[in-house]
Structures are given as structure tokens and as C-alpha cells.
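Entry 12.
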Amino acid sequence: MKSVLGFFTETTLAGSRPPPGYGLTAHEPGCIEGRPSTANGLIHLWVAMRAVLIVLATSAALMAQMDPREIVRRSIITWDRSSKTGRNYSYTERHEQRQLDSNGLLKSEQMDLFHIIFVNGDPFDKLVEHNRAPLTLVEERKQLEKLLKRQDETGADRGTRLAKEKDDRAFVNEVVEAFTFKLIGEDVIDGRPAYILDVTPRPGYVARSKRAKMFSNVAGRLWVDKQDFGWPKANGHVIDPFFIGFVVARVQKGSQIEFTQTRVADGVWLPKHVGINAHAKVLFIMSHDVDEVITFSDYQEAERAAMMSLVSRSRGPRAQ
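Predicted 3D structure (C-alpha cells):
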């Protein structure tokens, strides 16, 4: 960095002096009285071009100094911090899913709206709408039972649940080793500069977690905030089919996912939008095409006491 700044200073100072041989003035031959000479015009052009070259050289040097893997490594640290801090936020989560038949025609659609609240210090997704309508009495009772079960869970049950959540998130930590990253440019998203990286599977990588096995079958592009290394945007697509789930389902080539995140505080980025367009074969026979959109909104940093008060009001009388 010091050498880059030194180069910038020296060339800027040099740029303030005209090059040898361009010392014509308005009193020298070739100059028309009251008008700038051709030589003066060349001087201004030379200075302008030199300034542009300085900026380009400096930008290229600074970009070369930031290794793509280091950018992603720092972004994983931000992701991990955001994941932990995000547990202190309540928010609204909307799921919209459309299933298509083999001809691409709409087979079914569903919409669920959740309010994420806190129960015993942990997030809890409380269903409040189904297919754009309030819950029925039966659905309300199921939600109440689910809420009471979470509120009354034992320490062992909570430990098991948190361990599973940790395992579900662990595959993100394999991103740095699982892919090859290429820095291809910069962008501005919501007024904030970001790196753009192409992401491709790294040959020969062996996944450590079950969910990370899919990494060798997907490629995409990642945007990383230049200030605190959050992920404002990312997209990916399946380049080779892979299996998922307990029921044998094969995700087909061409399936796509994209997501965006929002910066809710310094260094804290949380989901904003997820779009999934997936093509799968279930039991090698049935086509299962899904178009799903998940949106996240109304993030509010919640005081635990306030959240527990909300849970208490939601609890009401126990079901008989």
C-alpha cells in the first residue's frame, strides 16, 4: 500500500509540470494572440490522460492486493457474526411457493406468513397466515401446542436442537475451501461499493459435512461489501445433478437460487430475499418443479423481556 501511495504522489507531482518541449507561451511563435495555442491544448490533454492512467494503475494495484480467497474468508467471518447476532432480531418471513407440472403449468400454490419471535431466548417461527387468510381454529391450536412445547422444552432438548441448527449452518464454513474465486470487478449496491467474484467448484475438494457435498455441483457469482464484507447479493445454478433429502430426489441441472441481504447494523447482514427455481426428479420418475420466493422484513432488535412478554400473551389458557 505504501508503494502505491508513493507512486501516486510522485506521478501526481510530475503531472503538474509540463513535459519537456511543451513550454510554449502566448508570446512564442505558433500562438495566436488571445487564444490558447495548440501546444497548450496538448499540455492539458497530456495532463488529463496522465491523471486517468494514474487512477487506473492505482485501482488495478489496490485490486491486485486483495486476494479473492481473503475477501471470501473475511466474508465468512461476517456471515458467522451476523448469524449469531441475528438471533437477537424479530422479523417477518413470507414463503410463497408454486409447484408446476411437467408441462410448466401451475399445479398448486401456497403462501405462509410467519412472525419470528423469541422463546426462552431463541427464535421461534410463529405461523400467522396461511394462503393469505387468518389461521383456522385447528391451525391456531397446532401453533399453540408448538409454542408450548418450545417454551417447556428441557435443557437436553434445547441442546439437541441448537446442535442440529449448528450442523445445518456448518457447511457455510467450507465455502472458502470448496470453491475457486475470481475477482472480476466491482459494483455498487444500495449505495455501497462491493466486490464481484465468480465462483466455481474447486477440483478434487472432498466435503466434510453432508450438505457441503452439493458444492461440487454448483457455480455462481458472489457480491461482497467492500467495507465490512457482508453478502449483499449472490446467485448460483446447478451445473451437475445431485441428490437431496430422505426421499430420493435428484436436483436437475439448470436449477437456480438467488438471494440478497440487508445491512441492519454495522457488520450485521441478514436475509432480505431468496428466490428458488428448482427442477427435481423424485424416485427417478416424478417431476417436481418448484418456484419459491422467501422474503424477510421488519427486522427489530428485540429486548428479551419484551419478547417474553409477547410469548406470555400468545400463550393464553392451555388447550383442554
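Annotation: The first helix runs from residue 2 to 15. The longest strand covers residues 286-301.
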